[in-house]
Amino acid sequence: MPHSRVIVGVVGGHSQPTLAEHIGKEIADKDQILLTGGRPGAGGAEAKDRAMDGAVNFASNKAGKVARIISVLPENPPTGRDVLWSLEISAQRRAVSIHTRLSSHQRDFINGVTPDVLITLRGGPGTLAEIVFAAFTGVPVVFVDSFDQLRAKLDDAGRLEAVQKIIDEARQEYPIGGALETASVVTGLQSLLAKPGLTVPPTGNLADDAEKTVSLALAHAKSSATSALNKFPGIKSYPNSAQEFERLLGIVDA
Questions:
Q1: 98-122 as b/e: b if 16+ CB within 10 A
Q2: Hey, which residues does 73 pair with through a beta bridge?
Q3: Is 142 helix (H, G, I), strand (E, B) or coil?
Q4: Kindly report the CA angle at 82 between 76 and 88, in degrees rounded to 5?
Q5: Which domains does the chain carry?
Q6: For 235, which of 38, 126, 176, 241 could close a Cys bridge (C-beta 3.0–4.6 Å)?
Q7: Contact between residue 27 and residue 34 where contact means Cβ atoms under 8 Å apart
């Protein structure tokens, strides 16, 4: 990875808000970069927002710490502005918000392929799709108190159909290719969720050890071979968006 710090993606639903917040705090404490589909101060229990809160609140109350965060948002820019990016730089925060103008499902592709490692909490079809996108591009996946819950969803045909619909929608923006057809999705998820070496701990049921989770994620990221596909994929309506992301990543990483 060309950046000096690890980009840690955090995905999941709304059933583990405290754990998500603690994970965000640990990422900031270890001076790494947090990427989610949420934003700080959004409220609610979604992992994507609470992880951001954890990073920002920790840096705001700890001298010398900085929250380095990237928000990938499925929405238009703030009213009256025709911009893709929002950049905030302060003593406690180096933050980029990407107003993708994509659907939430198309945005999920960015969440899966851009990080150097993906921490996965309990979730639904969107979380499973993000895992598929990560595995497709060689991004290591760490499960924290989510392994059994997500594996159980593989027996639910309706959930798998929903995952495929998300992938089909992402195909409208990104040329994902035939590797993510329905049969490949099922096989790939079954294979990934059968690898205990990528869980925290091997049983996949670590309830609240955020520090251990983040340490394991960083170890996987640093030992993983870099994939040419493991990067910000750009946005078609913004031809230079991939290059601009790298420029802004350099500011967040500084």
A1: bbbbbeebbbbbbbbbbbbbbbbbb
A2: 99
A3: strand
A4: 80
A5: 7-253 (3.40.50.450)
A6: 241
A7: yes
Closest CA to 29 of 4, 51, 2: 51
E strand intervals along 79-157? 85-89, 93-99, 117-120, 141-144
- 154 CB neighbour count, 10 Å cutoff: 16
Model confidence at 62: pLDDT above 90: yes
Q: How open is the CA angle 130-133-134, to the nearest 5 degrees?
A: 85
d(CA 225, CA 203): 25
Q: Could you say which DSSP state residue 182 is in?
A: H
As a whole number of Å, the end-to-end CA separation of the chain is 15
Upstream peptide bond of 201 is cis (omega within 30 degrees of 0): yes
Task: Using a pLDDT cut of 70, give the percent of the chain over it.
Answer: 86
**15: its two tokens:** 């059933």
Q: Per this entry, what is the length of the chain?
A: 254
CA–CA separation, 37 vs 127, rounded Å? 11
CA 52, 55, 56: angle at the middle one, nearest 5? 85
From residue 206, alpha-carbon distances to 104, 123, 163, 200, 238 in Å are 29, 16, 25, 6, 41
Q: Provide the token pair at 254.
A: 């500084």
CA–CA gap between residue 201 and residue 208 (Å, rounded) = 11
Q: Which two tokens stand for residue 70?
A: 């990237």
Q: How confident is the model at residue 21 (pLDDT cuts 50, 70, 90)?
A: very high
Helix or strand (DSSP H, E) at 34: strand 33-36
pTM: 0.91
